[in-house]
Each structure stands twice: as C-alpha cells, then as structure tokens.
C-alpha cells in the first residue's frame, strides 16, 4: 500500500497521475499547506523539507520506505513496477528530461506564479525574469517535440507525467496570455494528447473530497513562505 501525502498542486498531481495510470492501491493523506500542516513533526519525519508530495511505501524493501520529491517518487515507483520508465536504452534521455522538468520548468514556473500572485508588491524585474524563463523552457521542449509524440523514446513515460503537471498550469504561470501554449505548437499538441488520457481526469479528482483552505491570509502566507518571516523568539 502507498500512503500518498497530497495537496492539489502541480507536483502532487504528477504522482496522482502515475498512481491512476498503474492502478496501484493507495491511501490519500491530505496535507493542507495553507494551514501549515506540512510543518507538523509527523510530516517532517516523512519529508524533512516540508514540501508535497511524499509517499510511504508500506511494502518497500526491508519494510516501510519513505520517498519525497515528485521526481524521486516517479522514479521510485516506475522502477519498482517497471512501468513508464522507457527502455534501458532510453535511460540517459529519461533522466535528462526528468531533471530538465524538475530543475527548470518546475521552479521557474513556481517563481513566476509567486511573483505575479503572492508577492506583496509587483517587482517588474522578477516578473519579467521568471516569465521569460518559463517561455524559454517551453521553447526548448517545443523544439524537442517536433515530430515526436512523447518526450522520451517511443512511449509515454514518467517524464510526460512530470511535464504535464506543470504545463497544466501554464495559464497561471503566464497570466494575461489567452492561450499561453499557442506560440509552442508542438508542446500544445503534446499537452493536449496527454491531457486527454482517462487517467488525467481521475488524477484531477484526487483529494476532491477534502476541503483544503482557499484563503491566502496571513496564516497561509506564514505557512507557505516561512523564510519571509523572522524566526520566532
């Protein structure tokens, strides 16, 4: 059994998509980041970094195994089940593009969202910097996808799932653009193909029976951006 620590944001959604694709039994454990539940000692014992997602595999080698960070989880589960990890010949490409998403598209998209939606005041340099980097990463992936249906090899892999999680929020990372993927036709075609998979609809429904906090009030800001505040005396 997989205990899946979840909040409805891009990185947990990637793992939800994998779990729904393979039909692996799992238990959703909601962690409300706007209430600060990610800082509870019980969760920090699973992910010392206090971020979502995380899993505990109760059937891991030698007993329970914790795994945190969405890319690590996708690799762990993919390797364990031998599903969606391509062929041995694909391994170098799979790792390269998986980390391209985790070190590029993901954090730059996250910072673009932060400075446009959460910063206390607009900072034009930061907004321009992160929007442009999001677009640059899209351009790299768009060029790579020319004549291709998947990012790695000849089949759908965890890299497609990982990239889908962030591309699904393109309109949030690039607000004001009516169709933020329009300048990237290969990327848009690929995204629409992944987005039409039946498991995507199931992944979107994960956690929908839990009422997560929606208000971005002072409690939420302190919980989500603790480094912006001085440590308690």
Main traits of this protein?
four-stranded mixed beta sheet; 2 domains; Glutathione S-transferase Yfyf (Class Pi), Chain A, domain 2; 10 helices; alpha+beta; Glutaredoxin; 233 residues; globular
**Domain count:** 2
User: What is the chain-wise order of helices and strands?
Assistant: EHEHEEHHHHHHHH
Q: Report the β-strand fraction as a percent range.
A: 5-15%
Uncertain segments? none
Number of helices: 10
Distance between the termini: 41 Å
Corresponding CATH architecture of the largest domain: 3-Layer(aba) Sandwich
User: What is the percent of helical residues?
Assistant: 40-55%
CATH level-3 fold name of the largest domain = Glutaredoxin
Anisotropy-based shape: globular
Structural class: alpha+beta
* Spatial strand arrangement across the major sheet: 2-1-3-4
Give the overall pLDDT as a whole number: 96
CATH superfamily of the largest domain: Glutaredoxin
- Rg calculated over all Cα atoms: 18 Å
InterPro entries: Glutathione-S-Trfase_C-like, Glutathione-S-Trfase_C_sf, Glutathione_S-Trfase, Glutathione_S-Trfase_N, Thioredoxin-like_sf
Pfam families: GST_C_2, GST_N_2
Biased composition (Basic and acidic residues): 207-222
Domain GST N-terminal: 1-85
């Amino acid at each position: 059994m997989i205990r899946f620590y979840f909040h409805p944001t891009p990185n947990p959604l990637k793992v939800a998509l994998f779990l729904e694709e393979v039909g692996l039994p799992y238990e959703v454990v909601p962690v409300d980041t706007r209430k600060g539940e990610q800082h509870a000692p019980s969760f920090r014992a699973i992910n010392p970094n206090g971020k979502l997602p995380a899993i505990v595999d109760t059937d891991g080698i030698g007993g329970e195994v914790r795994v945190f960070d969405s890319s690590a989880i996708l690799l762990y589960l993919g390797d364990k089940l031998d599903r969606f990890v391509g062929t041995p010949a694909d391994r170098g490409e799979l790792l390269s593009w998986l980390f391209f998403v985790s070190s590029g598209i993901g954090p730059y998209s996250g910072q673009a969202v932060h400075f446009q939606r959460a910063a206390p005041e607009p900072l034009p340099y930061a907004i321009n910097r992160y929007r442009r980097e999001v677009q640059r990463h899209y351009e790299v992936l768009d060029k790579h996808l020319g004549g291709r249906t998947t990012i790695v090899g000849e089949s759908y892999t965890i890299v497609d799932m990982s990239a889908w999680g962030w591309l699904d929020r393109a309109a949030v990372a690039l607000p004001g653009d009516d169709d933020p993927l329009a300048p990237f036709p290969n990327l848009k075609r690929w995204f629409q193909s992944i987005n039409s998979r039946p498991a995507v609809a199931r992944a979107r429904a994960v956690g929908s029976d839990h009422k997560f906090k929606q208000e971005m009030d002072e409690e939420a800001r302190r919980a989500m951006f603790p480094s912006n505040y001085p440590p308690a005396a």
